[in-house]
Design a protein that fits this description.
Blueprint lengths: L6 H7 L10 H20 L3 E2 L1 H4 L1 E6 L6 H11 L5 E4 L5 E5 L7 H12 L6 E6 L1 H29 L2 H25 L2 E2 L1 H28 L11 H11 L1 H25 L5 H31 L3 H27 L19 H6 L8
Helix pairs in contact: 1-9, 2-7, 2-11, 4-5, 6-7, 6-8, 7-8, 7-11, 8-9, 8-11, 9-11, 10-11
């Protein structure tokens, strides 16, 4: 049997523990570097889809037509750097921005001629920039409302420190996912927005599960002097660690199939919009719930006066136990041999005195 076969049980029982909370500075540093790289990517700008900035989309159905062939043809028809992708049903999708001086009918006619397909097989869809701006504003409004509702719910269900920690983790995941989108140059479509909201919900779910265990472990914690809040929170995090990792791996497998097989190998470019957001977001969400949300919560809780007093009592209790253990070790040195269990009260007596104890006296 593998030594890791019962790791989940050992973590839950506290036999094995990883100090995530105690190493929060390391996790903060890693997150800071990742967010900084994502911010650099955001300065490059997002590649917004036609639904957000307006433009026209032409869908062509021609057997044997490849993306590279369609890209060369589109470059010869329009001058505004068209985006060409393949769809899941085998068609070619050509997106043209609103900066293109040619009309939609002219572009459609030229594509029909140069690709050698009937005009009625070239489908055209035109979206105005004002409509795209409204969609962008509604998407941003929905995201802000989602964040507010999440914060209010966590503040009521748990406490405001947990709400703040979860909100920081959500913003952390969102910045990383959007930054990766900007770095790789993927198009932001409504599917991408759906992916963003999905990963935020998943990250929140994972964080709430961890926080619920932490809440149970820290109930009445000020009435004892064995564990600090950070140690109890870290124990709760370890109890849910295997569950979080298993859930993340199971969720990532189908998303990876969509991204690498569907979008990469099979060339269904439209699958990349949502699959990349899900893949990056799920991984970032699992990381943030373990290495960001809970350590930040412990840090905020440790600032409370009662938690500071608890930490002081715990350290004093441990120091007293250490002094007592040292005193026992020093008292046992004159005998020259290790005292067996149950003989602690007789360490100061000589061997002769010990043997004599219990014998009947010869004196009358």
């Amino acid at each position: 049997m593998s030594r890791f076969s019962n790791l989940g049980h050992r973590l839950y029982q506290g036999e094995v523990s990883f100090d995530f909370v105690g190493r929060r500075k390391l996790w903060y540093s890693i997150s800071g570097v990742i967010v900084l790289v994502a911010a650099i990517g955001l300065t490059m700008g997002l590649h917004l889809g036609i639904e957000f900035k307006g433009g026209s989309v032409y869908t062509v159905a021609k057997p044997g037509l490849t993306v590279s062939q369609a890209q060369d043809t589109a470059n010869g028809v329009v001058s505004s750097h068209p985006l060409v992708q393949s769809t899941e049903n085998g068609k070619i999708r050509i997106q043209v921005s609103t900066e293109e001086p040619k009309s939609s009918d002219e572009i459609r006619s030229e594509l029909s001629q140069k690709l050698g397909v009937p005009l009625d097989t070239v489908e055209a869809q035109v979206i105005g920039p004002s409509w795209g701006k409204q969609i962008s504003q509604k998407a941003l409004t929905g995201l802000i409302v989602f964040m507010i509702l999440v914060t209010v719910y966590l503040a009521i269900a748990f406490e405001w420190r947990m709400a703040v920690s979860a909100l920081v983790a959500l913003i952390h995941d969102l910045l990383i996912t959007i930054g990766v989108y900007a770095l790789v140059g993927f198009e932001v479509t409504p599917g991408t927005v759906i992916g963003f909201l999905t990963i935020l919900g998943y990250s929140l779910y994972d964080t709430v599960v961890v926080f619920d265990t932490v809440k149970e472990n820290t109930k009445g914690i000020t009435k004892q002097n064995k564990l600090t809040y950070s140690e109890a929170a870290n124990a709760g995090l370890n109890q849910t660690l295997v569950r979080s990792l298993n859930t993340t791996v199971v969720a990532l497998l189908p998303v990876a199939a969509l991204l690498f097989i569907g979008g990469g190998i099979l060339g269904a470019g439209t699958l990349n919009d949502i699959s990349l957001a899900l893949f990056i977001g799920l991984a970032a969400g699992a990381y943030s719930s373990i290495c960001v949300a809970t350590p930040l919560l412990a840090q905020l809780k440790e600032e409370q006066p009662e938690m500071k007093a608890l930490r002081k009592r715990v350290l004093q209790h441990r120091a007293a136990k250490a002094e007592a253990a040292d005193a026992v070790a020093v008292d046992g040195e004159p005998t020259g041999e290790e005292q067996p269990a149950g003989m602690v009260g007789q360490r100061g007596r000589s061997a002769g005195t010990t043997r004599a104890k219990g014998r009947p006296s010869t004196k009358r």
